[in-house]
Amino acid sequence: MGQNCVIILFSGGVDSTACIHYYLSRKFTVFCIFVDYGQPAKIYEEKSVEKISNYFSVPFKIIKTNHSNICSPGEIKARNAFLIFSAILENPDFSGLISLGIHAGTSYYDCSPVFIKDIQKIIDGYTNGKIVIDAPFINWNKKEILKYCCDNDISLEFTYSCEKGDEIPCGKCMSCLERVMLNANQ
Question: Is the whole model's pTM more than 0.90, yes or no?
Answer without folding.
Answer: no
